[in-house]
Write a structure and sequence with these properties.
- This protein is mainly β.
- It is built from no helices and 22 strands.
- The chain has a domain of 124 residues: UDP N-Acetylglucosamine Acyltransferase, domain 1, CATH 2.160.10.
- The model has no long low-confidence stretch (mean pLDDT 95).
């Protein structure tokens, strides 16, 4: 395997942040102890948002993380917005949820995967959704309005509005509509 091109790693910093550094920060936003924020200049947070202990909001030098009004993000969640994240209003995100928006391409087999290019895909969570504890949302998908994602699910594709979906890979179990 060819290891040429391996870069020296560097720190991204401590994740300490100042409220004035956000692209937008609404009123009544609660950051519990241990929340770390990277690149807050690329993060917009609405009104009445709760962000639980130990959560990491990882902005990126491009694209945006947008968190809508009245949203609740449970402790120890990880949101990485390299490809962009849009979270609607009144969304519940359970503890330990990971939202990922980039992945390394497979590229040339003679190179370590970590050295290959990144592919980016925005993750969109529409209004009124509930994302269960420890769910993982992978790049480039949309979760429709009013949808419930079950605990521990791995979401790999779009989920339609007003669905109940769960599993690995996540699949629609039923509709919430009558």
């Amino acid at each position: 395997m060819n290891f040429e091109g391996i870069r020296q790693h560097r720190s991204h910093g401590s994740g300490a942040f100042r409220l004035e550094d956000f692209a937008n920060l609404g009123t009544n936003v609660i950051f519990e102890d241990g929340v770390r924020v990277f690149h807050p200049e690329h993060i917009e947070i609405g009104e009445n948002v709760y962000i639980g202990h130990g959560t990491v909001l990882k902005g990126y030098y491009r694209n945006r993380m947008v968190i809508g009004d009245d949203t609740w993000i449970g402790q120890s969640s990880f949101l990485h917005s390299a490809g962009g994240i849009r979270i609607g209003q009144a969304v519940g995100i359970g503890p330990g949820v990971s939202i990922l928006t980039s992945v390394h391409t497979e590229g040339n087999l003679s190179r370590p995967i970590i050295l290959n290019d990144l592919e980016f895909g925005e993750v969109v969570i529409e209004d009124g959704c509930d994302i269960g504890i420890n769910a993982i949302l992978l790049p480039g998908l949309a979760i429709g309005e009013g949808t419930i994602i079950g605990a521990g699910s791995v979401v790999t594709r779009d989920i339609p509005a007003y669905s109940v979906a769960a599993g690995n890979p996540c699949r629609v179990l039923r509709s919430r509509k009558g």
